Amino acid sequence: MSNDNPGADANPTRPVSEARRKVEAGVARRHASERRFRLYGLFSVMFGIVFLGLLLASVVGNGYSAFRQAQVRLDIHFDRALLDPEGRAEPGLLSGADYQLLVKSALGEQFPEVTERRERRELNGLVSPMAAYELRDLLLANPSLLGTRQSLWLPADDFVDMLLKGHVGRGAGVSGRPGGAQLAWVDRLKAEGRLELHFNRAFFVSGDSREPEMAGVWGATKGSFFMLLVTLLLSFPLGVAAAIYLEEFAPRNRWTDFIEVNINNLAAVPSIVFGLLGLAVFINVLGLPRSAPVVGGLVLTLMTLPVIIIAARAAIKSVPPSVREAALGIGASPMQTVFHHVLPLALPGMLTGAIIGMARALGESAPLLMVGMVAFVADVPGTPLDPSTALPVQIYLWADSPERAFIERTSAAIMVLLAFLLVMNLAAVWLRRRFERRW
Amino acid sequence: MRRIFHTGPMAGLIAAGLASSLAWGQVARDYISIVGSSTVYPFATVVAEQFGRTSKFRTPKIESTGSGGGIRLFCAGVGVKHPDVANSSRRIKSSEVTECAKNGVREIVEIKIGYDGIVFASSVASSRLALTRKAIFLALARQVPDPKGGATLITNPYRTWRDVDPALPDRIIEVLGPPPTSGTRDAFVELAMEGGCKAFPWIAAIKEEDEVKFKGICQTIREDGRFIEAGENDNLIVQKLKANPNALGIFGYSFLEQNEDAVQGATVDGQAPAFQAIASGAYPVSRPLFFYVKKAHVGPIPGLREFLAEFTSNKTMGAEGYLSDKGLIPLPAAELSAVQQAARDLAAMGPVK
Fold first, then answer.
1. Which of B53, B103, B276 to mutate: most A Cβ within 10 Å?
2. Cα–Cα distance list, A296 to A106, A263, A291, A354, B62 (Å)
C-alpha cells in the first residue's frame, strides 16, 4: 500500500522537488508578506505616536509658561487716610474703599520722578487692575492690617507678563502700548528684584476673567464636575436598569429588536442633536435655567445613556449562564438572581463602560453651546443650578480672546482637561483590575 | 452575595431630583443674563467682571451667541427665563422689534456703547496696502462691472491687486474673512463692499428702483477661492497672516491693536485704522456697537439698573474709560452724555426704520 504512494519513498525525485520548489518559493513570499503586515502595523502605531507627540509637545510647549505669572513686589501702605478719609471707621466701609489708590501710591513711591498725568497712567498700567481687589480681600480677611505697611507680591499686567516670558518683542508698538518708558520701568523693577515670575495660583483657584492674569480654570472645572455628577447619577442607574431589563427579562420579539436597533443608532447620533433636543425640552418646555450644569448634565445624560446601555448589556452577557442557573436552581427568584449574583459580577464592566462614556461627555462642547453654557461666567459655581461653563467651552472661549496672554492659558487649560481625562481613564483601569473576574 | 440595589428608594430619588429641578424654573434669578454679539462680548465681559467685583450683586452671565441669535433669545418673552440684555454689533431691525412686541417685549432701552473699526490687515513682513473701498469691492465681489466700460456685469476676472488698481502692488488677491453668520461680515459687506459699489453711478442708480438687485450685486462675495472664510476665530486669522505675507485678513480693530507687532492695517480711502480716525468717523469702515435692555426686567432682576449705570459711566465708556483700553472706540462727548441720560431715564427706543 505504501508502495502505491507516489510521494515519499518509491519515486522520490521528481514530484517531491516540484512540490518543494513551489512551497519554498511560496515560503519566501509568505514571509515577506508577513513582515510587510507587521511593518504596516508598526507604521500605524508610529504614526499615531508621532501625532500624539506633536499634539502634546505643542500644547505643553505653548502652555507650560502659563503656570507662572509675573508679579510685582510693592510696599503697600494700608493707609487709614486713603481708605477711610473721613475717619468714620465703620466696618462696611472697608469693602467699598478705593484700593486702586493704594497701588497707585505704592507705585508713586517706587517711581517718584514720574509726575506727568499721562505717564502716571502708564505706570499704573504695569500692575493688573485686579490687584486692588486682592488687596481688598486681604484686608477684609485680616482687618488688623489697617494702618500697617506690607511688602506684597501683586499680579503684574498681562503685557508685562508676556514681555517677561518673551512672548512679545520689545519693538515699538508692542500690543499697541507706548512701550519706551514702560520698558525702562519694567527693566528697573526687574533689576531691583521687584518683578519675578511666580507660581500662578490664580489660574487654579479662580473663575474666568477678562484680565488674563486673573483668569482661572476652577470655575470651569467645577462646572464640568457638576455636569458629570448629574450625568453619572442619572445615566448610570437608568442605563443599568435598561440593560438588565433588556438582557434578563425582556421577551425577544419585534419590539425589543426595534428598541435595540434604536439604542445602537442613538449611540452614533452627533452630539449637537442632543443639544438641540435639550434646548427644546429642558429649557423651552420644562423651563430649566440656561447655562446651568444641571441642564448640561441632562443633555450629556441623553448622549451617554446609549453608550452605557450597550456597555452594561455586554457586561451582563459576559456573566456565565451557569451562575444564573445555579442561583435559580437553589430557589432564588429571577430578581434575586439578577441583583445578588449577575449584577455584582457584571458591575466592573459596567463601571468601565460608564467611565469611558463620562470621559467622552467631559470633552463635549457642541451640545453645551445650545443650552447656553458657552458663556462668560466669572463667579465659581456653588451648586449645579448656578450658571457655569465647562472645561472644553472655557478652552474655546479663551482661544477666541484677543489678549495675547490667553494663548498660553488656552494650552494650559487643555493640559488641565487632559489631566482630568487621564484621572478618569486611570480610574476605569483600576476598577477593572480591582474587580474583574475571569472564567 | 450582598444586595447592592434597593430599587424602590432609587426610583424615588430620581423622581425627587427631577421634581426639584423642575421647581426651579419658577424661582427668581439673582444674576443678570446677557446674550448676543461676539464682537461686543469682549467689552461686555470686562464691564460685567468689574461690576461683579465692585458691587454687591453677582457677576452677570454673558453668552456669546452672535447678534441675530442673541436678539432672538432676547425677544422670546418677559420673565426670568429670558435674558435681560442683548448685545448687538448692528442696530436692531424693525422685524426684530415686531417679533419682540409679539412676545410681550414692548419697551426696549437702546444703548450705543461705541464704535468698532473693521480692519484689513496683513503681515508686517509685507508692504502696507493703500486700499480704497472701490478696490475692495472690485477685488472681492462675485460680479464686477465690465472693465471695458458700459453698464454690464461680468464674473470677477481680477487675479492680483494691480489688476484692480494700478497703484496697488502686484500681489495675488487672497483675503481671509469671517463667515456669513458673523456680524463682522455683515458690517464688512455693508460698509466696505457696498461703499465701493456705489462708486459706480449706474449701480448706485439701481438702488432706487430695485434694492434687492442692488444688494445682490454689491454684497455677494466671490466664491472662486480668492476670499477664504476663515471661521469666527480672529486669532486664527492673525496666525495665518503671519505665515502668509500675501494674504489679507478682515477682523475687528481690537485684534489689530493686540497684535500690532505681527500685523498691520491697510489704509482705506487714505485713512489708517487708528483710534482717532475711527473715533472721528474718518476711517470709513467702522460700525456702532449696541446693547438692548428689557425695561420690564429693571426691578425684578436685581442689579440691572446698577449694571446700566456702571456700563454707561465715564470710567467705563468715556474717552479714557477702561473699555478704550480694551480696544473699544468711545463715543464723542455729546453722544455719550445723551446715552447716559437715556440710561438714567430708561427711555424706551422709538420705532426703527
1. B53
2. 46, 21, 7, 17, 17
Q: Residues with Cβ < 8 Å from B37, sequence gap 6 or more?
A: B64, B66, B67, B70, B87, B88, B89, B183, B289
ipTM of the complex: 0.76
Whether residue A213 lies inside any domain: the answer is: no
Same domain, A400 and A261: yes
Is the CATH number of domain B117-287 3.40.50.2000? Answer: no
DSSP state of B181: T
> Cβ A288–B58 below 8 Å, yes or no?
no
Contact residues, chain A, for B33 at CB < 8 Å: 290-291, 387
Q: Are B274 and B200 in contact (CB under 8 A)?
A: no
DSSP B172: B
What is the C-alpha separation between A111 and A121, in angstroms, rounded?
A: 13
Query: What confidence tens digit (pLDDT) does each residue in B84-104 have?
Result: 999 998 888 888 999 999 999
Contact A387, A374 (CB under 8 A): no
My answer on whether A236 and A126 are in the same domain is no
Is the model's pTM score more than 0.90? no
Minimal CA–CA distance to A207: which of A419, A374, A377?
A377
Answer whether residue B75 shows pLDDT above 90.
Answer: yes
Residues A71 and A178 in one domain: yes
Residue pair B262/B124 in contact (Cβ under 8 Å)? The answer is yes
CATH of segment(s) B29-116+288-345: 3.40.190.10
> Burial code of A2-11, b = ≥16 C-beta within 10 A, e = fewer?
eeeeeeeeee
Q: Do domains B29-116+288-345 and B117-287 have the same CATH topology?
A: yes
Q: Is A288 in contact with B17 (Cβ distance < 8 A)?
A: no
In a domain, A44, yes or no: no
Are B21 and A385 a contacting pair at CB < 8 A? Answer: yes
Which among B73, B97, B95 is positioned nearest to B85, based on CA atoms? B73
Residue A171's domain comprises: 67-199
Q: Which of A14-28, A204-218, A341-355, A389-403 has the lowest mean pLDDT?
A: A14-28
In this predicted model, what pLDDT tens digit does every residue of A161-190 receive, in sequence order? 888 888 877 754 444 454 567 888 888 898
Q: How many domains would you assign to chain A?
A: 2
The owner of cell 456703547 is B113
What one-character DSSP code corresponds to residue A72? Answer: E
Closest by CA position to B139, among listed B169, B178, B184: B169
The pLDDT assigned to A312 comes to: 95
Q: Where are the domains of chain B?
A: 29-116+288-345, 117-287
User: How many residue contacts between A and B have a Cβ separation below 8 Å?
Assistant: 125
Overall residue count recorded for chain A in this entry? 439
Specify if A209 maps to a domain.
no
**pLDDT attached to residue B21:** 47
| Stretch 251-270 of chain B: residues touching chain A, C-beta under 8 Å | 254-255, 257-261
